[in-house]
Amino acid sequence: MKGIVRDIIIVAVCVAVLWIGLTAYFGAQNPFYVVSSGSMYPELAMYDIIVISGHTLFEDVKIGDIIVFDRPKDHDKVIVHRVVAVVDDDPKTLRTKGDNNQRSIVGTDYPITKEEYIGTVVHVIPQVGFITKMLQPPINYIIIAVIVGIMIIRQVYKKDKKKLIDQAKAESSISDYNEFQSNEKTDQPTKDFDSIYSAQEKKPADKLDEENTKSEGVPEFFLDKEKGSEENKE
Length: 234
Prior knowledge:
This protein is α+β, with helices and mostly antiparallel strands.
């Protein structure tokens, strides 16, 4: 479980660092938007992802630029349209229009001031926005559950694999020990037999030495008498 928590934290930290880096690079709190209508077709199609730059100042925006801004009348929707006119210079006020629309819409396309301005479109990634549609509930929760499930299975598999490796090592050690003991027992009778055989060979020599020792203590007179007695017997 600790391993899973660690992996989640690592992923979260990496995503956070990446996001902070992107926002700093593009100069916008959210540099990515998905086109949700066909008002800018064919320049921008539905589900295209647009990348905006907040480094382009509102004062530098000119006619023909495609900009992202909050809808003027209520600020509850983000719009991406093309600048078609500068209606006032003090303060600077713009009018926009969707390329696929017949005319500009009051409250949506104008008046656009610095307050509504978010950024200028600098890149377009075609059709990748389909992924965001797929990630809408409940599919996004299912994907998250699958990812977490895979991480859990991965951790369990690691633990089981480690147990099997440790068990195999233990069994191998026991097998080697039993084989060593068996070989030791097999060598023992051979050693005992060699000891007995050596003792039996040594015994006659010991008896002969003992008889010679006894003869050394008998006078020669008695030894000659014994020899003579043996000769008479013959």
